[in-house]
Amino acid sequence: MGSVDLISEEGLSVVIQIPAALRALTDNKTRIEVEARTVSEALQALVEKYPDLARYIFDEHQRIRSFINIFLNNKDIRTLNGLDTPLRDSDQLLILPAIAGGLPHNSYPL
After folding, report:
1. Which regions in the chain score pLDDT beneath 50?
2. Which of 23, 24, 79, 94 has its Cβ near the most Cβ atoms within 10 Å?
């Protein structure tokens, strides 16, 4: 089991789960605990502590990149209020980069 890092700011305690592909940017932490009132505040607290994550999560307009999915307690934040989604104490956020690649559909043997 990986280690947990705590980033304390005024707000509610929320855990952000870090995918394996991004752990090299968080000192191999699997979970980061932050205090925030919204998804936006939680992600900002995360990138303040680990600035190299910012370019993977946000585009040049500070919007979540199209290939990054953020889930709040197993619900895609796009189906909620996006970055403005309010958080509750003990909520869990999951950063999930989309995975693409592989062989073209017609390359699979039947």
Report:
1. 1, 6-9, 108, 110
2. 94
> Which burial class, exposed, middle or buried, applies to 26 when counting CB atoms under 10 A from its CB (0-12, 13-18, 19+)?
buried
> What residue has token string 């509610």?
12
What is the domain range of residue 68?
A: 4-107
CATH code for position 97:
3.10.20.30
Query: 85 — alpha (psi -120 to 50), left (phi > 0) or beta?
Result: beta
What does pTM read for this prediction?
Answer: 0.79
- For the chain, the domain total comes to 1
pLDDT value for 8? 46
